Amino acid sequence: MTMSRVLVTGGGRGVGAAIVRALAFGGFEVVFTVRTAVAEAEALIAEIKAARPEAVLEARPLDLADKGAVDAFAAQVAEEPFFGLVHNAGMSYDTLAAMVDQDKAERLMQVNYWSFVKLAGALIRPMSRARAGRIVAIGSIAADVANAGNAIYAGSKAALAGYCRTLAIEGARRGVTVNVVAPGFVDTEMLAPYAAYRANVEKQIPAGRFARPEDVASVVAFLLSPGAGYVTGATLPVDGGLTAALAIQR
């Protein structure tokens, strides 16, 4: 098994693109999935190769909401050598907890949670045989702190964190680490609906600003580095101190 090949879900834009960039510049070979961001993925590959001609990158189409497609993709990558898996892809669904549409909620759970379970299950076997592997899931501080209208998204990220803790202890003796990176507010298109509230939200974040995608990508890159070999079963907040702060301000 090559010690440098990583699969990243949802790598075409936003945090995913920043992760692909950080790993490619860190010397990893990167395979990343895209659903609609095909043009952005091509531009990202061109940008990286212009700065690092020897970089090995590949974008593959995958709709994580399509259970059959995920099953087929998981069977395919299980036969390939991967040192790392980063599950970045995700979707949001805002509605009050008492008004949840189950079909929409199940679609979100398929993308945010079940697709990761399937891919991690496929890749941890060869990682275990090689006694080397790194699995990172992009969670959210929403898994631990409540925000009105966020029940299903928060539930999916809490499920992701719980699964990762168990997978971590199951894989630890075989050289596979499993961790969660939990961002707070990140400056991406996903937060565009909240643009009107941005200034007010930023005032409540101790660091005084939203995270940049690169802030999240740097922590992911660390977890795939040799220095993180003894870090497993952890959730690392990347939230500018938001969850450490008392919500009520004097």
UniProtKB/TrEMBL annotation:
Q: Which residues form a coiled coil?
A: none
Record keywords:
Oxidoreductase
- Which Pfam families does this UniProt record tie to the protein? adh_short_C2
* Listed InterPro entries: KR_dom, NAD(P)-bd_dom_sf, Sc_DH/Rdtase_CS, SDR, SDR_fam
According to the entry, every stretch annotated as the Ketoreductase domain falls at: 4-189
**Any idea of its EC number?**
1.1.1.-
Q: Which Gene3D superfamilies match?
A: NAD(P)-binding Rossmann-like Domain (3.40.50.720)
Which top EC class applies here? oxidoreductase
One MF annotation (Gene Ontology) recorded for this entry: oxidoreductase activity
Q: Which family does it belong to?
A: Belongs to the short-chain dehydrogenases/reductases (SDR) family.
Protein name (record): SDR family NAD(P)-dependent oxidoreductase
Its lineage reads:
Bacteria, Pseudomonadati, Pseudomonadota, Alphaproteobacteria, Hyphomicrobiales
